[in-house]
Amino acid sequence: MKITVLSSGSWGTALAKTLCDNNHDVHLWSRSQEYSDAMEAKRENFRYLPGFPLPDSLHLTADLAKAIENTDLIVTSTPTQYVRHSLEMLKEHKTTAPICNVSKGIEVSSLQRISEITSEILGESHPFCVLVGPSHAEELIKNMPTAVVVSSQFNYLAKMVQNVFMNQNFRVYTSSDLVGVELGGALKNIFAIAAGVIDGLGLGDNTKAALMTRGNVEMARLGRALGGFEETFNGLSGIGDLIVTCTSKHSRNRSVGEMLGKGLSMDDIKAKLGHSVAEGVATTKSAYQLAQQYKVEVPIIEQCYQVLYEDRSAAEAINYLMTRDAKQERN
Ligand SMILES: NC(=O)C1=CN([C@@H]2O[C@H](COP(=O)(O)OP(=O)(O)OC[C@H]3O[C@@H](n4cnc5c(N)ncnc54)[C@H](O)[C@@H]3O)[C@@H](O)[C@H]2O)C=CC1
Ligand SMILES: O=C(CO)COP(=O)(O)O
């Protein structure tokens, strides 16, 4: 199959390599001709995934028309806040190829999930699926065994994408809960930032386990209110991705939190991140607003919002969470 991957960030690159391993004809598109040429010269994505040679068969391009001409599948890995722009470009090119989104987030300006943005731009009948789960690019590129989940309203597409990506190192499950799968991948980034704050403050394993467990309750509660199934949050895109992101040295979201915990300002943190994306910062704002709109109790998300956007100190936020009224664990 011809497969086009939009955006040569670290995740698009790692997935493109997996697709090359599976003998597909893979085209990795960059928005910058200059960067695409520089990668071609080195055969390495030296900015986003340094140290790994790109497969010989991988085509690098900044020409969108060529990249998507007669393609069978478009994988979108554009950061969430820019994905609308990518989809608009695809609409201009009148693309009919199915979209497989692998980005994780909720758009701040519309509070929409990426499936909703895609329906709005390309139409409800445009084939769309989401592929997410606990998966760091730095590990997949080294063939470390990884499991993810694909979900779609189009059953044939979920099965096709499962088949296209699966190999001995990359196991793909299907799920019928598109809303839950998308939200699991998006919401876990908020708690990954909080987990990093715990690391930055020098707090311990007890604190992080409490955060992850109660964070999972909040994801499921908000996810259910928005139309997802509670069980999905105990799967790969919920608890699975929460575990990997809250505990990994690779996670950008966790490291944003760690820097916050150590006292750096958001401006300094953004400068350190450079071109890399930590989706949880924007998704915290979207999730906070959705929770208010749907009247869902999400105290950890609220505190993350206040720390990120209202200058509340992390210590105050933790103290507030620990001294709330006594509760029953499940209600
Ligand atoms: N890196 C990883 O291990 C994983 C990342 N993801 C998700 O994949 C998505 C992409 O993340 P990464 O590949 O990690 O990104 P990255 O941090 O490696 O690279 C940033 C990407 O964003 C693009 N970008 C920056 N500003 C832009 C703009 N104004 N317009 C369009 N594109 C812009 C850059 O060109 C680059 O391709 C995110 O939603 C992330 O949550 C999902 C699973 C794993
Ligand atoms: O989603 C990811 C792992 O599943 C990547 O997490 P970060 O964006 O925090 O690096």
Q: Give the topology string: H per helix, E per strand.
A: EHEHEHEHEHEHEHEHHHHHHHH
Principal-axes shape call: globular
CATH class of the largest domain: Alpha Beta
Number of domains: 2
Number of strands: 8
Give the strand line-up of the largest sheet: 3-2-1-4-5-6-7-8
Oligomer: single chain
In round numbers, the mean pLDDT is 97
pLDDT < 50 runs, ≥5 residues: none
Question: What is the structural class?
Answer: alpha/beta
- Can you tell me the CATH topology of the largest domain? Rossmann fold
Helix content: 40-55%
Q: Which cofactors or ions or other ligands sit in this model?
A: 1,4-dihydronicotinamide adenine dinucleotide, 1,3-dihydroxyacetonephosphate
Provide the fold topology.
Blueprint: E1 2-6, H1 10-21, E2 25-29, H2 33-42, E3 59-61, H3 64-68, E4 73-76, H4 80-92, E5 99-101, H5 114-122, E6 128-132, H6 137-140, E7 146-152, H7 155-165, E8 170-175, H8 178-200, H9 205-225, H10 236-247, H11 252-261, H12 266-273, H13 280-293, H14 299-309, H15 314-322
Parallel strand pairs: 1-2, 1-4, 2-3, 4-5, 5-6, 7-8
Antiparallel strand pairs: 6-7
This protein binds 1,4-dihydronicotinamide adenine dinucleotide and 1,3-dihydroxyacetonephosphate.
Give structural notes:
The chain has about 325 residues and is α/β, with parallel strands linked by helices. The protein folds into 2 domains: about 180 residues, NAD(P)-binding Rossmann-like Domain (Rossmann fold, 3-Layer(aba) Sandwich), CATH 3.40.50; about 140 residues, N-(1-d-carboxylethyl)-l-norvaline Dehydrogenase, domain 2 (Orthogonal Bundle). The protein is built from 15 helices and 8 strands. It has an 8-stranded mixed sheet, with helices on both faces. Helix 4 runs parallel beside helix 5, helix 8 runs antiparallel to helix 9 and helix 8 packs across helix 13. The model has no long low-confidence stretch (mean pLDDT about 95). The protein binds 1,4-dihydronicotinamide adenine dinucleotide and 1,3-dihydroxyacetonephosphate. The site of 1,4-dihydronicotinamide adenine dinucleotide (NAI) has 24 residues, from helix 1 and helix 4.
